[in-house]
């Protein structure tokens, strides 16, 4: 099997989602992980993703970007059972859960970037809207049963909630959602999660 190169940032929850899936699928022997900052516009990242974002995957034949696409591609390389169901209601449920997790990550990452701007330039309007998105998303997760197993939906949700713990401990979502917090702690003990904890 060919060797691929994954560009990622250690703090990116989207890149973590891909790295978790790669470990769950046993692909580390054909996947070279290269850590970098997307803010540096590294030439190798821009060559792999003209949008300048992580994660980005270079294969023998092409480059792929956007975490759902990369996860779908990597999942096809492993054996059965797939972490992204190929069809039917199970696929729709998994993709819906992934979309919810990704949406939480979108709002959280946007908030982080906004808070890094000089305080006088920060938009309180957007920070409030993103916080509301996060709160509604967490509430929705708490009222729905967690995805069964550890497929793409669960991976996305876990990476999103762990990112909130990492970047926004002040949100304190765990206090109001103890069952969801317990589920997160349980699945976070997996080797793939422990090996990809954010560091920056």
UniProtKB/TrEMBL annotation:
GO-annotated cellular components: cytoplasm
Source species: Paraburkholderia fungorum
SUPFAM superfamilies in alphabetical order: GST C-terminal domain-like, Thioredoxin-like
Stored InterPro entries: Glutathione-S-Trfase_C_sf, Glutathione_S-Trfase_N, GST_Omega/HSP26, Thioredoxin-like_sf
Coiled-coil spans in chain: none
Protein name as catalogued: GST N-terminal domain-containing protein
Organism superkingdom: Bacteria
GST N-terminal domain location: 2-82
């Amino acid at each position: 099997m060919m060797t691929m190169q994954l560009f990622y940032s250690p703090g990116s929850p989207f890149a973590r989602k891909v790295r978790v899936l790669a470990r769950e699928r046993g692909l580390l022997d054909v996947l070279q992980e290269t850590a970098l900052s997307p803010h540096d516009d590294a030439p190798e990242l821009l060559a792999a993703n003209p949008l300048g974002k992580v994660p980005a995957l270079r294969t023998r034949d092409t480059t792929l970007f956007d975490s759902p696409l990369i996860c779908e591609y990597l999942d096809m390389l492993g054996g059965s059972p797939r972490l992204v169901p190929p069809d039917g209601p199970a696929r729709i449920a998994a993709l819906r859960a992934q979309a919810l997790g990704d949406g939480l990550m979108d709002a959280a990452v946007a908030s982080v970037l906004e808070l890094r701007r000089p305080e006088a330039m920060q938009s309180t309007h957007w920070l409030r809207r993103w916080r509301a998105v996060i709160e509604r998303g967490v509430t929705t997760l708490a009222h729905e049963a967690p995805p069964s197993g550890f497929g793409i939906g669960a991976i996305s949700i876990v990476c999103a909630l762990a990112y909130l713990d990492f970047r926004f401990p002040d949100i304190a979502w765990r206090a109001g959602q103890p069952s969801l917090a317990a589920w997160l702690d349980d699945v976070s003990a997996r080797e793939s999660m422990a090996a990809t904890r954010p560091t920056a």
